[in-house]
Amino acid sequence: MQYQLFYWPSIQGRGEFVRLALEAAKADYVDVARGDAAKGQGMPAMLALLADTGQEHPPFAPPILRHGKALIAQTAAILHYLGPQLGLVGKSASSQAWTHQIQLTIADMVSEVHDTHHPISGALYFEQQIAQSIERAKAFREQRLPKFLDWFEAILARNGANTSAARLHLVGARLSYADLSLFQVAEGLQYAFPKAMRSYLPRYPMVQRLHRELATNPRLAPYLASPRRIAFNQDGLFRCYPQLDA
Amino acid sequence: MQYQLFYWPSIQGRGEFVRLALEAAKADYVDVARGDAAKGQGMPAMLALLADTGQEHPPFAPPILRHGKALIAQTAAILHYLGPQLGLVGKSASSQAWTHQIQLTIADMVSEVHDTHHPISGALYFEQQIAQSIERAKAFREQRLPKFLDWFEAILARNGANTSAARLHLVGARLSYADLSLFQVAEGLQYAFPKAMRSYLPRYPMVQRLHRELATNPRLAPYLASPRRIAFNQDGLFRCYPQLDA
């Protein structure tokens, strides 16, 4: 049964964490809002879903996954659902719970990244909150960013399966959606904070190695080189404003 | 087997969502950081857990639940784990997933509430970011708060089991941890934004009714009246600063 992903069509955003999982698994899916409105897809289809007052389990915001009768919002919840179906998580309940916990912490980090360019309101433009963004981004870069990177590095270092592995993983000895999400975070942080990341990354050799390995992973590289991969831009979650990376 | 909750001992904070579930289920648990250091509890026990470099699945931040071999961080993940054990979630996978999705959205809202008094940095005092807090709180009160309340009200209205029920529930016909969390959010919002909530609440009769019913629920009222319930205060998540509720 085909997966239907509903997400903003012109940005990577939070939807990209779901796209990466679907793509790495070569899943049969349609990125609805990027489809053709004449075929019942496109933005009208997503807006109709968001406005559907007959929906018993209304999604609060995209990304949203529809799969048969299931309709799931919240990035981490979508990945928790997809993981076992796509073979992108371990089989045990404890392995699935730990992978989900990592994803939830990535979600928290991603919200903090968003707020570096929108510290006052998501309804205002960045240009209307630049001074506050500079303050928040400084606190993020100096205090929060290394705390998150420390944590990812510690998880990679403490995963016994990594000791002699050809490829690093956050959980056990297999590729999980959390690995794909950490790859995405590493990509995004280097786009948004190139200067800070150049200074930080050498202290995080395992995070760096996981990022490098996934960039050339045969399950991921074709997608990254395809037109399906939207480029980072100044409307997304990770934005490159030099003032915020000073 | 006894549950061990690790959370900051002097605030409700995110830990309160877990405390409410454990209390409503009359679970056997210990609130470790509030215990006696001489008995191996208290803050030293929590700080030792956070600093434990031998921990294969290190928690990023409290709250943390230890239960036998399980060690789980992230409020929503803890409740997802506890729900079935405490009888505070439906039995079907789809009911558990929906309850979890609601909790994840509550977690997002709670982070936004936190940032109304800490829009720049959690490492600074409120007094160091008052001007920015006033701006962020205004945007939260005017745009985000009604959006979240709309969503909770819609869920309550669309839950068919509520049509003729003596008590309202977010999911199906039984009390879930999500109901307890919405109660806590309604409490906290009325503490933090009394003026805004007085104006909003009449528009949300079902949210109001759920809050009122739970305040006198025999499973919850004894806890709320006990010394185990920490009072709201100016160190927690929900804080009452009149400037932010102008």
How many helices of chain A does DSSP assign? 9
Class per helix and strand makeup of chain A? alpha+beta
Whole-number count of domains of chain A: 2
What coarse outline of chain A follows from CA principal-axis ratios? Answer: globular
Identify the biggest protein-protein contact and residues per side. Answer: A-B, 42 and 41 residues
Structure, explained:
The structure is a homodimer of 246-residue chains. With 246 residues, chain A is an alpha+beta fold. Chain A has two domains: 3-86, Glutaredoxin; 93-245, Glutathione S-transferase Yfyf (Class Pi), Chain A, domain 2. Chain A has nine helices and four strands, in the order E-H-E-H-E-E-H-H-H-H-H-H-H. The first copy, chain A, has helices at 15-24, 42-51, 75-86, 93-117, 130-158, 177-192, 194-200, 205-215, 221-224, and strands at residues 3-6, 29-31, 64-67, 70-73. In chain A, helix 1 links the parallel strand 1 (3-6) and strand 2. In chain A, helix 1 (15-24) runs parallel beside helix 3 (75-86), helix 3 runs antiparallel to helix 4 (93-117) and helix 6 (177-192) packs across helix 7 (194-200). The model of chain A has no long low-confidence stretch (mean pLDDT 97). The A-B interface holds A 53, 55-58, 60, 69-70, 72-74, 76-77, 81, 94, 97-98, 100-101, 104-105, 108, 111, 115, 119-121, 123-124, 129, 132, 135-136, 139, 143, 148, 151, 154-155, 158-160 and B 53, 55-58, 60, 69-70, 72-74, 76-77, 81, 94, 97-98, 100-101, 104-105, 108, 111, 115, 119-121, 123-124, 132, 135-136, 139, 143, 148, 151, 154-155, 158-160.
